[in-house]
Design brief:
Blueprint lengths: L6 E7 L6 H10 L5 E10 L1 H14 L2 E5 L2 E3 L1 H4 L6 E5 L3 E3 L15 H33 L3 H10 L2 E3 H7 L4 E3 L8 E3 H10 L8 E3 L4 H10 L3 H4 L4 E4 L2 H7 L4 E4 L7 H44 L16 H20 L1
Parallel strand pairs: 1-2, 2-3, 3-5, 4-6, 5-8, 9-10
Antiparallel strand pairs: 6-7, 11-12
Helix pairs in contact: 1-2, 4-5
């Protein structure tokens, strides 16, 4: 009876089959359960490996099993697992990290100096990453960091027994279903391009005739990535949650949905559209209220500044004032006549 794995991480670390988001999704679903993980990878993106290592640590009950040939970032990803086993025929490689350097140009002395400074910076960054990886290895192996740095500098393949002796793994298994690693010419080309040494005693399968070898020559550096790209799983968290599925299986970049799943997506889109319309109406009503309040405020601010009615200009008398003045003059004349 074949083993059941909750996760199978294969191919390029950071690719579709070795994706940190999908790992996080599965671990969250099984937060209170043991999670079994199969790893078979020649490495890839070290940042993804560090992220997965943190996810395994946070979960606390992850059991990793290595089969085939595993190198570089693929070995880093498992370091915080609760238990690590390796197939008796599997291989294990640790080495210093590297980055792509491409320069093809005519340069003067100033430009050469800039290139040297750029490479010096890249070298310092890689040294820091190597120290970080060596520390993680040392913690797992319970050895001094300097020992691990020396092993990384050597960069040689370890057998399953040597991986156990160093402390990278906790157990060696010999299950019939775990086949011995076999490399094809495409993978060999990829390893050469990535600077990964060939292990001794590993079978290399020949492929086809001249045409196939020409294809391999052009695609070898991408073979490990593309090897499983025809059929893969992708995790779209929101849609998966809506449809209550773990992931979608894609073949040649295509997947299929049932009528019920399409209807669920349609209903959700209609609901979201209705929410958008409602929100737009509420915003329009609020804007109208704010505009009316602004008009009212402007009106209230203007009133104290309005000119008062019937204010007598300086040096002039109002009609009532003129009448009072004439009345007083007539009264004075009448008094004088009576005297």
């Amino acid at each position: 009876m074949s083993k059941k794995y909750d996760l199978k991480l294969k191919g390029y670390v950071g690719g579709w089959d070795f994706d940190s988001d999908y790992v996080d999704y599965i671990l969250e679903k099984k937060s209170d359960k043991k999670v079994s993980v199969l790893i078979n990878s020649l490495g890839g993106d070290v940042a993804t490996a560090f992220t997965i290592m943190a996810f395994f640590r946070n979960h606390g009950n992850v059991h990793v099993h290595y089969v085939g040939m595993n190198a570089s970032a693929a070995t880093v990803a498992s370091l915080s697992a609760k238990h690590i086993s390796i197939d008796a025929h599997a291989m294990y490689l640790v080495h210093k990290c590297s980055s792509l350097v491409l320069e093809w140009d005519m340069m003067n002395t100033d430009q050469l100096q800039q290139l040297i400074e750029k490479c010096e910076k890249a070298k310092k960054d890689l040294e820091k990453i190597d120290l970080n990886i060596a520390s993680a290895y040392a913690a797992r192996c319970k050895r001094d960091k300097a020992e691990l740095l020396a092993l990384m500098s050597e960069g040689g393949w370890l057998t399953a027994q040597e991986a156990l002796d160093w402390g990278f793994v906790d157990e060696i298994t010999d299950d019939p279903e775990d086949e011995a690693p076999v490399l094809d010419e495409g993978v060999v080309n990829f390893m050469a391009t990535a600077g990964i040494p060939m292990p001794s005693g590993v079978k290399v399968e020949k492929r086809g005739g001249l045409l196939q070898r020409l294809i391999d020559a052009f695609t070898g550096s991408r073979q490990v990535i593309n090897k499983t790209s025809l059929k893969m799983k992708k995790s779209f968290k929101s849609i998966c949650a809506l449809l209550a599925v773990e992931a979608f299986s894609f073949e040649d970049s295509k997947t299929s949905l049932t009528d019920e799943q399409v209807q669920k997506i349609e209903d959700e889109m209609l609901r979201l559209n209705a929410d958008i319309v409602k929100s737009a109406e509420e915003l329009a009503a609020r804007d109208a209220t704010i505009a009316a309040l602004n008009v009212r405020i402007a009106s209230l601010e203007k009133k104290p500044a309005e000119e008062p009615v019937n204010v007598v200009e300086a040096g002039k008398k109002s009609d009532a004032g003129s009448f009072a003045s004439r009345f007083n003059e007539a009264k004075e004349m009448f008094n004088q006549i009576n005297h």
